[in-house]
């Protein structure tokens, strides 16, 4: 009872509004012209209904904006996935393009080498200060044997030293135990290219009287039968003639960038062929 006493006015007002709305709606179908009661109801309740109408419009706008935001978020997620897919395709296409360039350069070398060759891919490396080797994905099942020369598009890489059925280990020309008979291309001075470490080589057993200058190109001489004659080895970067001794010190930078090497050619012949 206390509740009804406390909210009597509000309850009566709500009942009156409801009754008026029902009466008004029941009379709408019967006649177009509003009577005195209807006009009175419209006049009284118009100021009350106007804020409700505005609130309804505002609520509809808020809901529509929320749906738009949901759709935009869904569309953004879809676009992000499409961008990721496109980026993956671009990266894959660039890799294919780079591979085609490398294989094209190898093909040029293959056409100049006067011996059968086999393309291989570098799958491992050991470039420590003590050893310099690479592992390629071709082995005895592909016809590779120990002692075969390995070259790249830029020049000599090294020599096969161990062979498994599906892979082989290549001793790099920069390894201390490597040795390649070589010639200074300009002056024809001879020597043996030995690995020096740190990615460099040196030309040994070249006498002081031989004409060697910085910038000279060094190529394989063909002596020994492992490396074909005329393969590029590197460029002379330093020449030092001491006061004593009969030999000069010649430092060579290899033409092949071993750190970035991915594809090579194995010359299918050895020193006994």
Provide the fold topology.
Elements: H1 2-6, H2 8-27, H3 36-112, E1 117-126, E2 133-136, E3 149-152, E4 155-163, E5 168-172, E6 179-184, E7 190-197, E8 200-204, E9 217-220, E10 232-240, E11 249-254, E12 263-267
Antiparallel strand pairs: 1-2, 1-12, 2-5, 3-4, 3-12, 4-5, 6-7, 6-9, 7-8, 8-11, 9-10, 10-11
Question: Can you walk through the features of this model?
Answer:
- With 273 residues, this protein is an alpha+beta fold.
- It has a domain at 118-267: Thrombin, subunit H, CATH 2.40.10.
- 37% of the residues lie in helices and 27% in strands.
- It has helices spanning 2-6, 8-27, 36-112, and strands spanning 117-126, 133-136, 149-152, 155-163, 168-172, 179-184, 190-197, 200-204, 217-220, 232-240, 249-254, 263-267.
- The strands form 2 sheets. The chain has a 6-stranded antiparallel barrel with strand order 1-2-5-4-3-12. Strands 6-7-8-11-10-9 form a 6-stranded antiparallel β-barrel.
- Strand 3 and strand 4 (155-163) form a beta hairpin.
- The longest helix is centred in the first third of the chain and has 77 residues, at 36-112.
- The mean pLDDT is 79.
